[in-house]
Amino acid sequence: MENSKALRTWLDDHQLDHPLVIAGPCSAETEDQVLDIARSLKDTDVNYYRAGIWKPRTRPGNFEGVGAIGLKWLQQVKKETGLKTATEVANRVHVELALEHDVDMLWIGARSTVSPFIVQEIADALKGTDKVVLLKNPVNPDLSLWLGGIERLYKSDISKLGVIHRGFSSYEKTKYRNIPEWQIAIELQNRFPDLPLICDPSHITGKRDMIFDVSQTALDLNYDGLMIETHCDPDNAWSDAAQQVTPEKLVQIMKDLKIRKETDEESEYKSKLGNMRAQIDVIDNNLIETLGKRMKIADEIGQLKKNRNVAVLQSKRWNEILGKMILEGEDHGLSEEFILKIFKAIHQESINHQEKIING
Ligand code: PEP
Ligand code: MN
C-alpha cells in the first residue's frame, strides 16, 4: 500500500464538484422497480446506481434477492439512463457474473468483510480488474480486519479501491441501527488519506429521518462520498423499508448538505479545522451518551438501595472511585484538579437522581 495516492485516481477522474453519490434500492425487486428508480435518479447528482441482487439476511426466510436476473436489469439501467452500476458480491460466482454483466462498481458487504477466507476468494476472482471495488467495514468494530481486507484486494492488483463506512453492530440497543464509531473510520482515513472513504448513512441509522445528519457529519469529516438507499415506494420495499428515501428526498438531502471544498491554503485550513471540530462534536455526543448511561445505572442502584433501605451516600465507595480516576486521569494527561471537579459534578448528579428515587 506504499503508493496509496494511486488509489484516489478513479475518484478524481470523475471531476465531481460534489461528493460521490451512490444511490438506488437496497434490493432489486422487479425490473419495473429497478428501472423506475433509475429513471428518477437519472438527472440528479447520482453517479452510481446501486441495487442488491444477492441479499445477505441475518435470519433466513426473508427476501434473499432476485439473483443473477437482476444483473440484466442493471445492464438495462446503464443503457437507458447512462448511470454506472453497483452491486454487492459475496463469493467467486457473484464476482464472475457481475463482471460478465459489466457492473462498474462491486462492493463487499459487512458480513463478508469479517471473513478473511471470503475476502480472499473475492480478491482472487477480481484479480487485476479495472472495476471499482469498495470494501464495507466489518460488522464488528475491528480496524485491522477492515485494513486486512483492503490489503488483500490491493495485493490482487485492484487499483480502483475504496471503503464504505456503514457502522458496527452491537448487542446494546441505541438510536442507530449500527453504531458509527466514527473514530475507527477516522483512524483508517489518517492511515490512508488517499483511500476514498464513502459513508453509508442508511445502514448506520436504519431510519430515514436520521440520514441527513449522519451524512452532514460524514462530509464535515471529509468523507469522499455517500451511499444512500433510495426507493420510489420505501414503505413497501422488500428489504430495509424504514431506512430508504424517495428519489425526491435524496435530491433534497443533496441540496441541503453543506459541502466543504479544499482548493487553496485558506480552505485547507478551514477543512482541517472543520474535520477536527467534527471529531470533537462526535466525542462530545459520546460523552453525553455515556453520562446518560451512567445515570441510568445510578437510578437502578437507587432502586436497589430503596428496596433494602440503605443510605444514598456511601463515602468509602466514593473515595475509592475518586482515587482510581485520579490515577487513570494522570495516564491520560488530565490534572487531579480537573478530575476532582468533573467527578464531583458527576457524583452530585448521581446523588440527586438516587434521592429522587428513594424519596419517591
Ligand atoms: C446493503 O448495502 O444493502 C447491505 C446489505 O449492507 P451491509 O453489508 O452494510 O449490511
Ligand atoms: Mn440494505
Characterise the protein shown here.
The protein is of the alpha/beta class and 360 residues long. It folds into two domains: 4-259, TIM Barrel (Alpha-Beta Barrel), CATH 3.20.20.70; 267-359, Chorismate Mutase Domain, subunit A (Up-down Bundle). It is 51% helix and 10% strand. It is built from 14 helices and eight strands. The protein has helices spanning 9-12, 31-41, 69-81, 92-100, 110-113, 116-125, 143-155, 182-191, 201-205, 211-220, 247-256, 265-308, 315-331, 336-358, and strands spanning 20-24, 48-50, 84-88, 105-108, 132-136, 161-165, 197-199, 225-229. It has an eight-stranded parallel barrel, surrounded by five helices. Helix 2 runs parallel beside helix 3 and helix 12 crosses helix 14 (336-358). The longest helix has 44 residues, at 265-308. The termini are far apart. Bound molecules: phosphoenolpyruvate and manganese (II) ion. Manganese (II) ion (MN) binds next to loops. Residues 26, 229, 239-240 line the site of manganese (II) ion.
